[in-house]
C-alpha cells in the first residue's frame, strides 16, 4: 500500500540578475524559501552572449549544473575543464575550497547561436565533509540512463533511484535528482521517496498535479512536498488539457541536523568558519593555495 505526499508549499521562481549579465529564476535560497535542508539554492538560468559566471570561489557545498539547452563550460584551479551540451550534467563538490568559472559556449556562426539554459542546485555538505578535497564529475546525456514507468512517462535518472534505474552520481551526503517528462494528457507515475527526506519539484514546462491536489503547479514554480511518516512517495500526473510537455525535476535529500551560516559562496556551520574562509581565500591558504594569481581562460574571454 502506497501513500502519496502532497504539496506543502509553492514558491514562484522570480527572475533576478546574477553573475555578469545573466538572469536566473530563483526559488530556493530566497526569503520565501530558506532552510530547506540539505538544499541551499535552486537557479534556473538563461545566459546569452556577453554574460556568465566568471572566476569565483566556493567552500562547504556541492553544486549540480544540468543543461536544458545550448552549451555550458567549466574551468577550475585544479586544472579540470569540461564542456556540456543539452542534457549533460556536472556535479562539483567544493569541499575545503575551489575557484572556478562557469560560462556559456556559443557556435561561431551567429545564425546558429543559442542561449544557454541550465538548472543549478546547491546542496549543503555534512559538517564532517565540509573540508574534504574538491572533486568534479560530469556525464553526457547519451550516457545517462532513463526509466519508462508508464505510457507517456520518461525519467532521466541523474542521481538516486527511479523504477529500477540507479543514477550514476554517488553524491556526498546523499541527494536524488530526477528529470521527469510527461508527454501525454493523464500520464502518471508514483515515485518512491525515502521517508523523512526533504523533497521538492520544480516545473520547467507545462502543468503538474501532485498527489490528489486539485490545483496543478504551473511552470517556474517550486513545490515543496509534505513528509508525513506514512508517505512513501508521490503521485505525479499531467492534468488533462495541458499545452505542451510537462517537464519537471524531482529532487530529494536527507535533511542535515546542523546550523547553516552562509556568506555568498561560502557555506559553513558558524560565523568563525565563514571568517576563516574569507581569510583563507584572500591569503591563498587551507585549500585555496592555487587561488592567488589564477585566472581561467574561459572567464577572461567572456565569450561572445
UniProtKB/TrEMBL annotation:
<dbReference type="InterPro" id="IPR012093">
    <property type="entry name" value="Pirin"/>
</dbReference>
<dbReference type="Pfam" id="PF02678">
    <property type="entry name" value="Pirin"/>
</dbReference>
<comment type="similarity">
    <text>Belongs to the pirin family.</text>
</comment>
<dbReference type="InterPro" id="IPR011051">
    <property type="entry name" value="RmlC_Cupin_sf"/>
</dbReference>
<protein>
    <submittedName>
        <fullName>RNA pol II transcription cofactor</fullName>
    </submittedName>
</protein>
<dbReference type="InterPro" id="IPR008778">
    <property type="entry name" value="Pirin_C_dom"/>
</dbReference>
<feature type="domain" description="Pirin C-terminal">
    <location>
        <begin position="184"/>
        <end position="286"/>
    </location>
</feature>
<dbReference type="InterPro" id="IPR003829">
    <property type="entry name" value="Pirin_N_dom"/>
</dbReference>
<dbReference type="InterPro" id="IPR014710">
    <property type="entry name" value="RmlC-like_jellyroll"/>
</dbReference>
<feature type="domain" description="Pirin N-terminal">
    <location>
        <begin position="23"/>
        <end position="123"/>
    </location>
</feature>
<dbReference type="Pfam" id="PF05726">
    <property type="entry name" value="Pirin_C"/>
</dbReference>
